[in-house]
Structure formats: C-alpha cells, structure tokens
Amino acid sequence: KSWTALDFHYDHGDEYTNVMDMNGTYSAHVFANQAINIINQQDVSKPLYLYMPFQSVHGPLQVPPEYPDKYPNIKDKNRKTFAGMVSALDEAVGNVTDAWKKRGLFNNSVIIFTTDNGGLVHAGGNNYPLRGQKFTLWEGGTRGVAFVSGPLLNKTGYVYPGLVHAVDWYPTLVELAGGAVQDLDIDGFPMWSHFSNNVTSPRTSFPYLIDNETKTFAIRVGAWKLMIGVKNNSWYPPPPESTVDFTDNDHNFDEELANTAKPKKPIVHLFNVDDDPTEHNDLAKSQPEQLATMMKHLEDMKHPYVPDLCGPLPRTSKADTDMHGGVYTHGWC
C-alpha cells in the first residue's frame, strides 16, 4: 500500500502540532509569514538562526496564476510555471529580509542563499550551458549556485573563485558564530574568513560520488574532474531554442535518466572544468599523465569510503496514515 497524506507541522520544541487549516495556501507564503512572525517576536539581544528550506522551486509545479502571468513571452507551460515559482520565492525572500531589517537585526546578520543541485529539465528547470541535470554527476547536476550577503562581509560585489562543498556550510556558520571550529571532527572547512575577504579556499578537492558497488566514481581535484562509469547526459538549451519537447508525455525523462546506456566497460572522462565548465572537451586520452594523477587521487579517496548501511527501509502497517488522521507522524516509530 502507498500513502498520500499531510506532512505539515508546527514544531513547538517539545511537541508537534499538525497544520490542518492551510489548504489552498501557497507554501512559500506560509513559510515567509511564519518566518516574519518569528522575527517580530525575537528578542533582539539574542542571536537567531533562521533556516528556510522553501519548497519552491521544486516539483510539483504549482504557483498562484499571478506569478506565471508575469511571463507572457514564455510559451512552454512547465518553464513558465517554474519562472512563476521563482518569482514567488523571490518575493518571499524579499519580505523576510524586509522584516529582518525593520526589526533591527540586519546590521549584525549574514544571509546565505543556496541550492542543493541542478534543475530537472522536464520539470521546468534548466542548467544550460552546463551539461546534464539533476540526478547526474555532470556539472549541470552538481554545480550549485549560491550567494552570501550582509554588512558583516569585508569584501562584497565579487564572484568567489574557490572550491566550496555543501559540507562546508556547517563549519562556516560555526566559525561565523564564534564557535570552536577546531573541535569539530568533520569533513567541512570553515569558509567565513575566506568569503569575507576573498581569500584562497582551503578546499582543494572533494568526491562527487564513490560507489564501489556500481563502480561509479567522480571526483574533483583543483581544476580537474575525473568520472568513471558515469552515464552520458547531454546539453539542454531552454525552450524555445531546445529541440526537446519538455511537455511531451510520450518522452519519459525519468526513464531516460535511469536507463541511459552505461557501457559494460566503464568509460573514463577527464575534464579541466576551470577552462571547460560545459564539459565539451574530454582530455582522458590526450592527458595521460594528468589522468594517472587523478586515478591516484581517486584511490586515496576510496580508503575512508563508508558503504551505505541503511538499505531499503522496512514497511510497516504502523505507518499507515489512516491510523493517524491522514497525516504523516513520527509517533509510530
């Protein structure tokens, strides 16, 4: 049995309250309003960490009509809805930032806006001219965009050129808050002083994926990116330039992503993504010495590899949402 149920709660610290009266309300508005309520009630003499993982811009593609109506020039339905979702998100972030300023918190604050992966092409997203999309190891699926803003930055108005990984955000925030970063036994690097002053990144490498089970590997060292056994993926110009019909119901992009031919003998790719961020020029054959160096780096990264111990989650009738008023709950586990 599969369940469709409500997964929306207020967290009161010691208990959760199910939110049952928000049907027909757009989630970006709900989250922004709740954030503004928290800001307005905040004791300005105490620190505040506000984490806002908006559902925009993620499937399902839904947004009040006044937002996509801003884009009459976009004919592709999914792309137009997606653009409307971006506008709704932008409005929500602006409203929260205005509340932050009115409360007198902004001058001692930092705003971080970031993503977790590239866009999904058939769901309105686009990463062109980068290659690939969400669920792939190409730059279009893995090179996320972000910005850091606020009056605490010593230097502003520039694009940070260094390597940064998602695991770096946590120690960066600890450093910013005055915590003891040296006591953290983690993989991330504290980046606040580097962002604030445009100083060279301490990070020189990271793994995209090390999967010994499927023999699929991708790593980055400096400007170089090595991929082994990675499924091929293409470049998808946004509509109307694209020749792909993103609304074609007969074209199953999920199946395409899952079943893109993976050769019996793993293909090795090598790119200099500083010079070639769109991954057009495979240098695996023309740069044998660099390839050997990257293969050595891969072997070094394999040693601390930890296999997935979770596996598929067991199914239990105790999780049947019909037993919990039509909501997902942690009360059964």
Descriptive account of the structure:
The protein is of the alpha+beta class. The protein is 24% helix and 11% strand. The chain contains seven helices and eight strands; from the N terminus they run E-E-H-H-E-H-E-H-H-E-E-E-H-E-H. A hairpin with a 4-residue loop joins strand 1 (9-11) and strand 2 (16-18). Helix 1 (27-41) packs parallel to helix 2 (77-102). The longest helix has 26 residues, at 77-102. It starts with 8 loop residues before the first strand and ends in a 31-residue tail after the last helix.
Residue share in β-strands = 5-15%
Element pattern in H and E: EEHHEHEHHEEEHEH
How many helical elements? 7
Q: Using the CA coordinates, give the radius of gyration.
A: 23 Å
The largest pleated sheet is described as: 4 strands, antiparallel
The count of β-strands is 8
Low-confidence stretches: none
Give the N-terminus to C-terminus distance in angstroms: 18 Å
Sum up the overall morphology in one term: globular
Residues in helices, as a percent range: 10-25%
Biggest sheet: strands side by side, in what order?
Answer: 5-6-7-8
